[in-house]
Structure formats: C-alpha cells, structure tokens
Amino acid sequence: MTNFIKNFFQNNGAWVATGTMVTKFSSFLVILFASRWLTKNDFGEVSAAINFLGFFVVFTGFGSYQGMLRFGAIVSPEEREKLKAYSFSYGMLIQLIICLVMAAVAWLIYRDHWSLLSIILLFNIRFFGVYLLEQAKAETRADFNNKKYALLDILSSVSLVLLVIILIQLLGKDGYIWALCVSPFAVLLIHKFKLSFSKKNLFSFTERDFWKFSVTSAMGGQVAEWLFLIDIFFISLIINQTAVAEYRISNTIPINLMFLAYVFLQTGYPELCKQHLNKDFQKKYLRNYLKSLIPISFVILAFGLTFPDALISLFGKHYEDSSIFKILIFGTVSVILIRAPFGYLLSALGKPAYTLGVSVIMLVIISIAYYFIIPKYGLKGVAYTNVFGLTLSGILYGLAYFYELKKIKS
Asked: Is the pLDDT of residue 74 over 80?
C-alpha cells in the first residue's frame, strides 16, 4: 500500500487530487448557492434540465475522447499528435449532430412544458463546451500530464462558481442557467486544439479499432452513469420539480464524496492501460486500492450517519429531512469500493462491452422499478432502488473483470 500511495504522488496524483477536490467542492458550492438563492421550484426546474442533459453528455463526441485517452496513452508521441487532431475534428462533427438530436428529443418530451424545454435548448451551449473540456482533459492525460489535467478542472470549476455568484445575483434563475452554459469554455484560455480531417498515414491501429472502442465506451462505461440520472428523471415525470429539488439536495454530498475513488482511478488509468496484459500489476493495483479506500469508506459512513441533519441544513431552511441522505450515503460507499474500481479496470483491459451490457440490463430493471415504486413509496423508494442498482452493477462489473483477468497469461 505504501508503494501505491508513493506511485500516486509520483504520477502527479497530488495535482489530480487537488483538481478533483476543487471540482467537487465547486459543484457543492454551486448547488449550495443556487438552493439558497433560488426558489425551490426554480432550482428543481434547472436541476431537471441538467439531469436531462446528463443523459446525452455520456455520448459526448460519441466517445472520441475516450479513444483519445486509451490509444493516445499507448502510441508514440508522434502518433499521439496526429490522434489529437483526428479525434478532436471528427468528434466535434459528431458532437454537433448529437446536440441537434438532444434538442429534438427534448421537444418530443417537453413540448408542452416550454419553461423546462427552453432551458434544455440553451444547455446545448453547455453541451458543446463539455465536449471541448473532455477532449482537452483526454489529450493531457494521454500525455501523462496530470498537472495540466488538474488545471483544466480547476479553471472550469472556479469559473463556474464565480459566474454563478455574479449572475444569480444579477439575473436570478436566468443567471444560473447562463453560468452553467458559459463556464466550460474557460478551457480555451489554456488549451489549444488541433484541427485536421486528414487520414493519411494515420495510426499503427485501424480507425475501426479506435471507433469501436470509443463508441462502446460511450455506450458502456459512460451509459453506466445513467444510473445516477434516471432517478431524477422519473421523479420529475411522476412527482414534481419541488421533489426533484429535495432529492437533488439529499444526493449532493453522497455523489460528491465519490470523487475519492476517482482521484486514484483517474491518476492510475493511463498506467493501467499500458499494463493491461500484466496480471500481477492488475491484481496488486486493486489490492492496494482497496486497502487505501476501505478505511476512508468507513469514515464516510460513520460521519454521514452521525451528522445527517447538520449536513442537510447547510442548504437552507427549505431542506430539513435527512432520511433520504442516510440511505444514499450507502450508495457512495458501494461506488467507491465496488462499482468505480471494477468499471475502470474493465475499461483498461479494453472490455467496455461488459459495462455496456450490465448498464443496459440495470437501466431496464431500475426504470421499471421506479415506475411502480415512486407512486407508492416516494423518494425513499427511489433512494433504496438507487443504492441497490449501484451495488448490483458493481458486483456484475467485478465478476466480468475477474473472468477476463483469468484469460490473461502471466
């Protein structure tokens, strides 16, 4: 475990940790300010729009930045530069198409709810900015430049907080919406993209290999994130925007605490890709990860169950019920110890098809469950179902990972 922590810092893990902490803390502050300064209905409406955007964000560039990271980490520096231009250029074209698709789907679902539909349409601006940010982060990680990767996160996060503070005071709900739209474009201040549609003498691997991995990752590892979004979607459809606000507040701290897993996993992912055929390295990484994160998980659980009322009260007098929070905090621990590590390890092995299969199955099961559970059990039923879905998907990821690991010849 000592070497695990040492390698974490040698790979500029401190920078990744700082960047991730700033991002999560900034996200927390944004929700804190918005929940206090906006009405519960306005906050719930914008939250519902953000949640809808989340279903499409998983398809950003159709996974081109995922391919950039994985293949960029294993090719020569010369090839990597060509790959940056290729993945950015074609990913951008696909991104513009996905933005149009999102607008069309939003119109079909919310055409009778113009207030919510107008917010979603404006969020196409944010959607394109997210593509730029994710592409830039993938390029820097493929260069093993964790310092710049962290700076990109910090810049976009701090920009969002400052814009939210200023624009909400000036424009209220509209200011909150525009702050969310504009902040991702801060990436352009410190990162330059290369544009080229040339395919001449491109890679040592085929375009088919690149897009197969990219698309599968987008529909697998990224679609897995839908389990974090489907709850608010159904709450918005079946109950109301006030219930969305209450659930969003209850889930804010549990979701943001998951960064503790992603700090280690994002730092080690490029190396895991390089060592994807090294069974001993894979096993040692997982063992040391769990040794480090199990004690932290116990602390999270103990603190969350001891002081739930105090934590929820941070978001203002409109939010007092901590019962949902006490359920969702178990989901945090489940993600940290099971779902997150096995999801990353499967992706490093180049097997995102497993996460796709599990995600689709769980999404169908959870969606059907919400349809029947929400009318009868309300937000508590949503919370219990959410934790169940995250835990079961993590277990299935783990089974798939160990199955594939057995195939590797040491």
From this structure: no
